[in-house]
Design brief:
The chain is elongated, with a radius of gyration of 22 Å. It has 13 helices and 3 strands; from the N terminus they run H-H-H-H-H-H-H-H-H-H-E-H-H-E-E-H. By secondary structure, it is mainly α. It starts with a helix and ends with a helix. It comes from Ogataea haglerorum.
């Protein structure tokens, strides 16, 4: 089939939410784009905005099909391919640009890659989008808000928003709920291990936003901790700086106090 025929079939499959079919068609389409020097913007293709816009749309379908199929590696690959197209000044902005780049920022948060998260924000700033402006965008506001809460140790705010059936600007944001909560739990668990020798079972349940004691026990087994008389005991990790331990304890104390307050309200 020709590139035009395959692209038409891709669009129909995507409109029907047949993401598996989209991912089947895309490798062949990308090969044809390579043959026509369209997959990566260059000096020879920059003079043809129409072809570049079509290629960008194809890659956006690939990114959305991948994320809806929960293929995060494929999603990251499509974002890498899309970035040069989003940087072109001779193309009008895509309506999918902010959504896809925001989803990529959320992915970085779930992976705990705060360094790359900030690099991506700085990259956007280089194209005239300040953080203050990004915070006003319905898409970018979500990962920026989450990142600030994570840095400040306000983990309960992230949990509260994710578990409140919040109406996000696109359905794909909901796909990151489990991954983001798992990432936050691991961060909290790591801080707990380095700051305490033990904690009451009920306190741990609140700190890790777990719904039942069975969930707590499952997490304890996963982390290699043990329970004795309703106290959870951790492997004490050595810390080079006592001040860091105290800071972590204060963050956890604040988080626990806030969690208890919210639970009493509910």
């Amino acid at each position: 089939m020709s590139l035009e025929q395959l692209t038409s079939q891709l669009s129909k499959s995507f409109a029907a939410n047949n993401y598996a079919e989209c991912l089947k068609l895309l490798p062949q389409i990308k090969l044809l784009l390579v043959e026509q020097n369209l997959l990566v913007p260059s000096l020879t293709t920059a003079a043809n905005p129409s072809d570049l816009a079509i290629t960008r749309s194809i890659l956006e379908i690939g990114a959305l099909a991948a994320i809806n199929s929960e293929d995060l590696n494929a999603f990251s690959s499509y974002i890498t391919l899309l970035k040069p197209f989003y940087d072109l000044t001779n193309l009008p902005d895509s309506p999918n640009k902010n959504k896809l780049l925001s989803l990529y920022l959320l992915l970085l948060l779930t992976q705990g890659d705060l360094a790359l998260f900030h690099i991506e924000l700085e990259r956007l700033a280089n194209f005239g989008l300040s953080v203050a402006e990004l915070e006003k965008d319905q898409y970018f506001a979500i990962p920026i808000k989450f990142e600030k809460w994570i840095i400040d140790g306000d983990f309960y705010k992230v949990y509260e928003l994710l578990s409140s059936k919040h109406s996000f600007p696109c359905k794909e944001f909901n796909l990151f709920e489990k991954e983001l909560l798992d990432s936050i739990r691991l961060t909290i668990a790591t801080n707990i291990e380095s700051s305490y020798t033990s904690l009451p079972l009920e306190n741990l349940k609140l700190l890790l936003f777990l719904k039942s004691l069975d969930d707590v026990k499952s997490y304890i087994d996963q982390m290699g901790w043990f329970v004795d008389n309703s106290e959870v005991h951790f492997d004490k990790r050595s810390s080079a700086i006592d001040d860091e331990i105290n800071d972590e304890k204060q963050i956890l104390k604040n988080a626990l106090t806030y969690a208890k307050e919210m639970e009493s309200i509910v």
